[in-house]
Design brief:
With about 425 residues, the chain is α+β, with helices and mostly antiparallel strands. The chain has helices at about 35-45, 50-55, 150-155, 170-180, 180-195, 235-260, 280-285, 290-295, 315-320, 355-360, 370-385, 390-405, 410-420, and strands at about 1-10, 15-20, 25-30, 75-80, 85-90, 95-100, 110-115, 120-125, 130-135, 135-140, 145, 155, 165, 200-205, 220, 225-230, 270-275, 305-310, 330-335, 340-345. Helix 5 runs antiparallel to helix 6 and helix 11 packs parallel to helix 13.
Length: about 425
């Protein structure tokens, strides 16, 4: 499990320190303040390769190159297979490389990374860990499996043409025909990731979608009874089924590799997800984090899962209120203050609903209303305490409030009472 990350002269702030919870970690903050950047560094810290360094097709997951003057360093610690590991890497500007201790790095367990654009990355302790050859540690195995968005669906190949992964479409169809453990796991994971019992994701029958398409295409059985080919599903459903496939594929391949090595599968899983709410309807946003915390239980009996996710969604924050445990969870918030980025670990205080989260320290909005309603309410609040406010202006303001507020808005009662008392209306 990832323990601590400390950055000096790297990224948008002179220094940042995160002490991660062992289970759930939430990162909030405005666009451009470093949420994705922190996830990229977390991935690199555990695997020592940037995602786009392995797969140049990616437009995300680029190597972090410090722009600040002075020595730049990344320090981190995590619990490895055998012991807890602490490490520091410094940036060598002439070499444009991050350097550190020589030799074999520690084994962090299974590391999964779901990026914002639909890219995925997997570091597998059985398939990607270093080898010992002639008494020397060498990294002859692949450093990780990194999928561009299209490769998640249609397969990943090495430069020499070796097929590394068949992709969601072919694997799903094969698993469904075989009716083996992989398909049973996929069905279970889809069920866990469904937004509700009434909208349960279920595989439909395999189908053909074109006279020229020779593949059998998996389908999703919709609540209205129709089987929709996965390649034609909505963005939200594609996001969820890609997550489900990614989890099942990564675990199945790890389990098979561990069997070949005559080793036990790892029970440590670190799951990094950027913008977990991407493309998801609010009903899904309310359920996705609790579902992801429990999904590995469908795959292994000994799950020790750490989830680190960035989010812009107040519904995501509201959804974790029943499950957030300060003894094993953490919330980090990025803010821009007087031109400087500040990272804080904030105490998690329940807000009760999503609109209250909008006005909390996580999102820093003055209200949960539209910008126009916010301006009108500010003007009305000032008018209520101004004895010299003109009745004609008050009528114009009343008309504006009617345009931007609902009939049941609680501000109406106060406004009407005071306005009538002052003789404005």
């Amino acid at each position: 499990m990832f323990k601590e990350l400390k950055l000096t002269n790297v990224g948008p702030a002179p220094s940042m320190t995160l002490e991660f919870g062992q289970r759930l970690n939430l990162i909030t903050g405005d666009n451009g303040l470093g949420k994705s950047f922190l996830l990229d560094i977390a991935w690199w810290s555990m695997t020592r390769k940037w995602p786009s360094e392995i797969n140049p097709k990616l437009t995300v997951g680029k190597k972090v190159q410090p722009q600040r003057k002075g020595e730049s360093s990344i320090s981190f610690s995590f619990s490895g297979k055998v012991k807890e590991v602490s490490y520091e890497s410094t940036y060598q500007r002439r070499e444009e490389a991050w350097t550190g201790n020589a030799g074999r790095p520690a084994n962090p367990g299974l590391v999964l990374y779901a990026m914002t654009d639909g890219s995925f990355a997997v570091w597998d302790p059985s398939r990607n860990y270093w080898q010992t050859r002639n008494g020397i540690d060498v990294q002859e195995r692949r450093p990780a499996y990194v999928f561009a968005p299209d490769e998640v669906w249609h397969g990943l190949k090495a430069e020499d043409g070796t097929v590394l992964c068949n992709g969601l479409v072919q694997d799903w169809a094969t698993w469904q025909k075989e009716k083996g453990a992989a398909f049973r796991h996929l069905v279970k994971v889809l069920k866990v990731l469904s937004p509700s019992d009434k909208e349960e994701l279920q595989p439909g029958d395999l189908t053909r979608i074109s006279l020229d398409e020779a593949r059998d295409i998996p389908t999703i059985r919709m609540p209205y009874g129709q089987d929709v080919p996965v390649v034609h599903a909505s963005s939200g459903i594609r996001r969820i089924i890609a997550l489900a496939y990614f989890l099942v594929w990564a675990w199945e391949e790890h389990r098979k590799a561990a069997d070949l090595l005559q080793e036990d599968p790892t029970h440590q899983v670190v799951f990094l997800i950027d913008e977990v709410e991407s493309h998801l309807h609010p009903s899904w946003q309310r359920s996705i984090i609790p579902a992801l915390l429990s999904v590995m239980e469908q795959l292994t009996r000994r799950p020790d899962v750490q989830l680190i996710t960035a989010t812009h969604s107040p519904l995501i924050m509201a959804s974790v209120e029943p499950v957030f445990d300060p003894s094993q969870d953490a919330w980090f918030d990025l803010d821009l203050e007087q031109g400087e980025v500040k990272l804080r670990q904030r105490p998690f205080t329940r807000q009760g609903d999503a609109s209250s989260w909008l006005t909390s320290e996580a999102f820093d909005l003055e209200s949960a209303r539209s910008k126009e309603a916010e301006v009108a309410l500010t003007q009305a609040s000032e008018a209520l305490s101004d004895d010299s406010f003109d009745a004609q202006d008050a009528k114009a303001l009343d008309a504006k409030l009617r345009e931007v507020l609902s009939d049941t808005d609680p501000f109406w009662m106060r406004w009407r009472f005071v306005a009538e008392k002052k003789g404005w209306l």
